[in-house]
Design brief:
Layout lengths: L2 H16 L15 E6 L3 E21 L5 E6 L6 E2 L4 E5 L2 H36 L5 H34 L1 E3 L4 E3 L9 E2 L8 E16 H11 L2 H7 L4 E4 L10 E10 L4 E9 L10 E17 L4 E3 L2 E7 L5 E8 L7 E6 L6 E3 L13 E3 L1 H27 L3
Parallel strand pairs: 1-19
Antiparallel strand pairs: 1-18, 2-9, 2-13, 3-5, 3-8, 4-7, 5-6, 7-9, 9-12, 10-13, 11-12, 13-17, 14-15, 15-16, 15-18, 16-17
Helix pairs in contact: 1-6, 2-3, 4-5
Length: 400
């Protein structure tokens, strides 16, 4: 072997020895019972609570026919935007138009009869004053006039009904909105007793999102605000999470809270209103209401400090004697992927082990070090590992 190469190997071996690489097996030169420990401090945490929700238009109107007949014209398409009063369907109106003409003729005949009865009554009054006829003839003339007036009223009512039936042949939209399904096409026979509606007009300019809050959450909200009206007005803007996991780009506002708690579920129904200018939200869709809130004095720890065993979670709390205690904790279901919010089992002022918890045992005595010290020693360990790798390569290259 070349003398220079032998000197290089010897020098590198000496460096590793000075770093404690000989008998330590690549570990930094500190005791196995040294662990990074942190003291719990209260922090403010931005949290959110989610509730399953259903989405409805501000007005969903079923369009049903009031008269029977065949559909002769379909004036809209599914998903079309319509305005109040816009024509949607035309039902065969030949029979109803004929009924209108017949009713109109009956009105004209009744008017003529009434005019004749009035003239007769006026003439009878003159004859009665001249003692030509008696009171009986006069009263009979008056009764005939009143009967003719009643017949005219009946004819006019029949005319109005017939005209209204004719108008019902032209089905119009009662509100602004979007057309839903169209189960009936031209030629279909429909009536007021048809099982399916002609269509549904949904006013989706604003969407109403319904969700249920637990009785406890509602009680907490009411106590904090003082009364329900103040609680609703002060309620923060809510978000809507769609079925694909994305957040709808317009915030909503809680508008109403039901006054009745469902005894079977222990929840109360609430409604939040969301603007829908792009018509992204549809009636019948589902999602989740996201309610943001801030927790003060929250206990937040790294996820690496938590041990999970059969859906239960534990941390190692360090006592005054530096012995660790295997302690169960409860987690807030929300997390950012790096930390957990502890709701019970750990309080401000407690010390807990941050790293290396998998090698701990309940009651084990440790030597607490700061996280900075622990990180520095881990860094030295990595450097030592790299140096050992270089030494192995040199030995292999030199055939040693």
């Amino acid at each position: 072997m070349n003398k220079t190469k032998i000197l290089l190997v010897a020098a590198l071996t000496a460096v590793l020895a000075s770093c404690g690489g000989g008998k330590s097996g690549g570990k930094p030169n500190f005791g196995d019972n040294e662990y990074a420990v942190r003291t719990v401090q209260g922090q403010n945490a931005d949290l959110q609570t989610t509730y399953p929700a259903t989405i409805k238009g501000v007005q969903d109107v079923e369009i049903r026919p009031k008269v029977s007949g065949f559909i002769t014209k379909l004036c809209v398409k599914e998903g079309q935007q319509v305005k109040a009063g816009q024509l949607l369907f035309v039902i065969d109106n030949v029979t109803y138009a004929a009924a209108v003409r017949q009713a109109k003729a009956a009105v004209n005949a009744a008017k003529a009869q009434l005019n004749t009865a009035r003239l007769t009554y006026k003439n009878s009054e003159k004859l009665f004053k001249n003692n030509v006829i008696g009171s009986y003839e006069l009263q009979s003339s008056k009764n005939a006039m009143e009967s003719a007036a009643a017949q005219l009223a009946q004819a006019e009512a029949a005319y109005v009904s017939a005209k209204q039936n004719l108008d019902f042949c032209y089905v119009t939209s009662p509100a602004n909105g979007v057309i839903g399904d169209l189960p009936y096409r031209v030629g279909a026979l429909v009536s007021a007793s048809s099982q399916q509606a002609l269509t549904t007009v949904s006013n989706n300019s604003t969407m109403q999102v319904y969700f249920s809050m637990t009785e406890k959450d509602l009680l907490d909200m009411t106590k904090t605000a003082g009364n329900m009206n103040i609680a609703i007005s002060n309620y923060p803007a809510v978000k809507l999470q769609l079925v694909d996991g994305s957040i709808y780009n317009h915030p909503g506002k809680v508008a109403t809270v039901s006054g009745v708690i469902d005894p079977t579920t222990g929840t109360v129904s609430m409604r939040a209103d969301f603007p829908n200018p792009e018509r992204v939200l549809k009636t019948g869709a589902s999602g989740s209401i996201v309610v943001p809130h801030t927790a003060t004095g929250a206990v937040i720890i790294p996820q690496d400090a938590v041990v999970e065993v059969q859906d239960k979670h534990f941390v190692y709390i360090v006592g005054k004697d530096n012995k660790v205690k295997y302690t169960p904790v409860t987690l807030n279901p929300q997390n950012d992927g790096k930390t957990y919010i502890i709701t019970s089992g750990l309080k401000v002022g407690d010390r807990f082990v941050v790293n290396g918890v998998s090698s701990l045992q309940d009651g084990m005595e440790i030597k607490p070090v700061t996280e900075a010290q622990y990180a520095e020693k881990l860094k030295k360990t990595e450097e030592l590992g790299e140096a050992q790798g270089d030494l192995g390569k040199l030995k292999k290259a030199f055939g040693k």
